[in-house]
Amino acid sequence: MASPTTELFTGIGRRGHEALLEKVQGSLRFDLEHDQQTDHWHLAISRGDVTVTQEDRPADCVVRTDQGLFDKLATGESNAIASLLRNRMTVEGNLRLLVLFERLLPGPPTARHPRPATRGRWRRDR
Amino acid sequence: MTGETLVRILDGNTFVVSNDTGDIDPSPSVPKGFFSYDTRFLSKWQLKINGEGLNALSVDDLQYFETRFFLVPGAPTHYVDAKVSVIRQRVIGSSFDEQLTVLNHDDKPMDVTVRMEVGNDFADLFEIKNVENKKGDLYIRVEDGALRLGYQRETFRRETVVTASEPATVDEHGLTFTVRIDPQQSWSTSLHVQTIILGAGGRDLRASLQGQHGRAKTQMQEELHKWLDQAPRLETDNAALETTYKRSLVDLAALRYTPLTYGGESVPAAGLPWFMTIFGRDSLFTSLQALPFVPDLAATTLRLLATLQGSKLDDFRDEEPGKILHEMRYGETAAFEEQPHSPYYGTADATMLYVILLDEYERWTGDATLVRQLEPEARWALEWIDEYGDLMGNGYVWFQRRNEKVGLENQCWKDSWDSIAYHDGRLPGFPRATCELQGYAYDAKVRGARLAREFWQDPALADRLERDAADLKERFNRDFWVEDRQFYALALDTEGRQVDSLTSNIGHLLWSGIVTQERAGSVARALMSPRLFSGWGVRTMADGEGRYNPIGYHVGTVWPFDNSFIAWGLRRYGFRAEAGCIAEGMIDAGEFFGGRLPEAFGGYDRSVTKYPVQYPTACSPQAWSTGTPLLLLRTMLGLEPHGEHLVVEPALPVGMGRVGLLDIPGRWGRTDAFGRERVEIAGRSTLRELHGGGPRPIT
């Protein structure tokens, strides 16, 4: 079974376009360490069109962490900005690209819409 | 409060709070120290000459980022014929630098031991009051001529490195210099304190990021001069107004900071000492206040908040797609998710204020490019209002935190726990729909419609937003109006009942335009009644309400920022005298604080105290208080963009004298505005008896 990380990046590559990144121009590379080796995911973004490769190419923003953490980011169990503040993940270059990429990461699996819990007690047409 | 004099210098989110000798010593109540990125980097910094502490002769604030202390050793009683004096000159920017000079006034050579005690606890700003239980490990290393203090918790690491330009003996608790000074000569050394936030490759995080280069003192000076040069020039014979205007521009420069997440451009941080970070609401309000003076602040605020706009559901962060953030922090508690500020989204107003600022920014600057660039974010913000703001599905904006552990209960500007109360003092359940949120929603929709029609070529959206806004206004005027007391309720509870306290929130309703013409007079009268108007300004909550307390944070104090928007609202509905009355009260109050209005001051009646009583833990300078005199100037001069022109309709209260504002930037290029006192505030002589010489409430 593919890891959450692989599923995330192949999903992005398959879609090829992200409405949330339509103003973004630039490239990111994720260096993910596991078992004494490093996997690379390279994303070239141009006006929302995203090309994903697994090449170790230069990028405007280079993110480094371990595969284990990134799997949790890919499922929403961990948070990218908190991981960065904790220095569990490091960034070089243009941090803004990572913050924008973070839009593509899911929220925690347990998160809920704020509405259902409170809805229906007092309606407009009371 | 300890009552001791505190000296503060700051540059963005880096600041020092020390006592008046320049020493930093532990203090549980006031956060003393050298802080950067929400972390304390020095908690002890004490200078001793021959084993003795020093006393201050004088302190000069040279720039917002630079201070000079003149000191002598010994107790105050016997320093009269001191043979030694000391000058400490301190600058902060990317690091903390102190030039230490010891002068020998004797006609004999002198052997002096100069000692700097150094220590740090690496407290997160959120745990200042209780730093005993740090989860990580502190370490100290004496290196070649340097003292390295550090803190490590898992991968999280912060360090303070102290070095000196002169040879020093370094031990784990400080640096010692043993020097001989010739008669009438001096000795000097530079102390350099570097902060390290460990990031990629074991280097400082900021060194690895674009646009995070530190600035030298000369560069900071140049930037300040440029900032002041670009702002409009005020010409007035009113000394208080002139002082507060200059103070505001300099403080606003000091409060700008460059967030890590945004390469190089700066936005207003909220306030010293607790809020030196980006707050959605504070940055938006401050940018609105400062628009006629420094419009670039609005542009960077809008861009930064767009980058960090919510994109998902996250209960811990109270995040929803399209929501504008509340607060961003960089400290240990945010990093380890003990606090949700990475960023935290628990605010119900910032998303609507975002749309309001974007529209107002275009009206002033004509920068259609930015409005088009930020179209997606503005659309998401507008969608948020209906999809997530309207929690109850009944067309109003509500709030209820999902983070029940450390989230904010009241997600409006009055965010303390007891601010939203019924007339009898009871607190309503959740969710709550406060009235000003409905006003902002209305304004955001009206303004969003203009943007959609004129810039996004989406007339269908514009029509829908206008219909929604009209519908909201009608319902609001039915559901929130307290018929027997003739004002708008503070909020609605979940059963649709009115939370019926009289509060300053109704002033924001005038600003938003949701008030019907026939009710505006009642609202203005309520605002200026003695129950709300203290003589200095409008209280957050009226005297006579169940929870009223003149020194309650949001239940009786007077907030300058609040008053500036109330004055703007009064002006919008034609209440020139009332707006002028508030402007005059605020500028008078500012005089008592050297032109620097604090976050809040006591709601005591002006005739009782004669001077404004500062709220005990108020932040100062605070961005939206700093922006207050600017918005009041706009209000008094009646500045309003109209097409490609700036309309000027001055209405200055008596006593304001002559006011000229030259080179106001905008879509017209640069233009001037002049006003002369004209507005008569009725019955002024009786008021002087009532309120000790200030403006009076209009009854």
Distance between the termini of chain B: 37 Å
Task: Label the structural class of chain B.
Answer: alpha+beta
Radius of gyration of chain B: 26 Å
Low-pLDDT runs of 5+ residues of chain A are none
Q: What share of the residues of chain B does DSSP label as strand, in percent? A: 15-25%
Q: What sort of overall outline of chain A do the alpha carbons produce when their principal axes are compared?
A: globular
Mean model confidence by pLDDT of chain B? 90
Largest pleated sheet of chain B: 8 strands, antiparallel
Q: Beta-strand percentage of chain A?
A: 25-35%
Q: CATH fold name of the domain at 6-208 in chain B, please? A: Beta-galactosidase, Chain A, domain 5
Spatial order of the strands forming the largest sheet of chain A? 3-2-1-4-5
Shape of chain B: globular
The CATH homologous superfamily of chain A: SCP2 sterol-binding domain
Task: Return the string of H and E elements of chain A.
Answer: HEEEEHHEH
Helix content of chain A: 25-40%
The largest inter-chain interface, given as chain pair and residues per side, is: A-B, 43 and 53 residues
What does this structure look like?
The complex is a heterodimer of chains A (126) and B (699). By secondary structure, chain A is an alpha+beta fold. Chain A has one domain (4-102): SCP2 sterol-binding domain (Nonspecific Lipid-transfer Protein, Chain A), CATH 3.30.1050. Chain A is 27% helix and 28% strand. A five-stranded mixed sheet of chain A has the order 3-2-1-4-5. Chain A starts with a helix and ends in a 25-residue tail after the last helix. The model of chain A has no long low-confidence stretch (mean pLDDT 91). Chain B has 699 residues and is of the alpha+beta class. Chain B has a domain at 6-208: Glycoside hydrolase, family 65, N-terminal domain (Beta-galactosidase, Chain A, domain 5). Chain B is 30% helix and 24% strand. Chain B is built from 18 helices and 29 strands. In chain B, the strands form eight sheets. Chain B has an eight-stranded antiparallel sheet with strand order 6-7-8-9-16-13-12-11, with no helix packed on it. In chain B, strands 1-2-3-4 form a four-stranded antiparallel sheet. Chain B has a four-stranded antiparallel sheet with strand order 5-10-15-14, with no helix packed on it. In chain B, a hairpin with a 4-residue loop joins strand 21 (481-482) and strand 22. The longest helix of chain B has 21 residues, at 459-479. Residues 682-699 of chain B have low confidence and may be disordered.
